[in-house]
Amino acid sequence: KDMGAKIEEIGKLIRKERNNLGLTQDELGQKVGVGKAQISKIENGQGSRISTLKKVLDTLNLTATVELNAAATGINKKLIEYVVANISEFAKKYDLTIREASNYLNLHKGLSFLEQHYDAEHLLSIDDSVEDLARVCYNNGGGLR
């Protein structure tokens, strides 16, 4: 099956379980921390961030195993390698351990910035990318400049 069909199946599973529990899309959204529209999108198989999908599944005590196809895995692999390289460079630049850098970048939204802006950021030099990360984290309450 293709990825779209699997996401659609997960959406149907979520809708069925939400109905079994007598929850509206709005109520489920509130429990998860997203709007009714996002729950509707997920239930209709229109996709969502994996983290949001996981929160919905956890809230409903459901688990879903999704096998990613080769193309999706290839993209994810590039993103993962890119994020790892950035964490490593960030750690070097600010004299942190990899774990400290990773925790800092996660806490101050640097990692989600990299994930969301990968298409543009991966075209920059690693130094420019690390500089952008530092700025994003600083703007989100981080202490490093």
From TrEMBL:
Q: Name one GO molecular function term.
A: DNA binding
Residue limits of the HTH cro/C1-type domain?
14-68
TM segment ranges:
none
Q: InterPro entries annotated for this entry?
A: Cro/C1-type_HTH, DUF3791, Lambda_DNA-bd_dom_sf
Record-given protein name: Protein containing Helix-turn-helix type 3 domain protein
